[in-house]
Write a structure and sequence with these properties.
about 280 residues, six-stranded mixed sheet, alpha/beta, 11 helices
Length: about 280
Amino acid sequence: MSIRIVIDSTSDVTEDIINKYNLKMVPLTVNFENESYLDKVELSSSDFFEKLIKAEKLPTTSQVSPGAFVEAFSEILMEGDQVLGIFLASEFSGTYDSARIAKDMIGSDNIRIMDSKSVCLGTFALILEAIELVKQNKTIDEIVGELEEARDKIVAVAGLDTLKYLEKGGRLSKGQAVVGSLLNIKPILEIKDGKLSVIEKVRGKNKTIKWFDEWIEKNNYDLSDKPVLLFYAQNYDQLKALREAIEEKYKIKNIIEQEIGAVIGTHAGPGVLGIGFLNK
């Protein structure tokens, strides 16, 4: 009996990793005014940002339904495997609750589900840890126990290039957005324990990369023995500049690059730059 990891599309796990480790990805739905798409299935990250830039109204996302999870879980159980589900923070979406409902509907002891308390690169970091634990042939209960400890060690921060989408989504007033734009303010967001908060404000795009460098140094993070996730949105040149600034300096063992998807992308907008890892 193997353990199959089930994820949702908001973790932005790369297609290579999904295929290599036989992960099961269940998509949320992205809703523009008159069109709906299955995230990552019918709408790629690059296509999403093209639509976002043109859209007058912000898109919304719909959680995965319990029925979709029942189908995904049942398929794995029928193959004789156990289910380990790791999903975005319940504070951001009802997707985790849908998975819990599906588990109760099926009534199998071979399903475990986790609220990552994060989204995007934070959830991705936890999923990478789960993959390693499965490779070590640990039991599903052992894995869940270790992941619950690791969840508290998720580090995930992102720098925004524009305040436009925070204002559109009602998270900033129009006045705040105008003043912030005039001053060229770039907020740095942290995703922790299911909450999104501004931890710093820098002025100018180039200062964001400098901030990341100084933040790693100030916190004395050891990045030499862990995968580090670098995320971007239509600003790959900036990601390359960040990578060049930190890769050798901090002896980073493994960097994984990915373009963020619809859930964070809706509010962050194009130009976001992020970093995530488990601070173990």
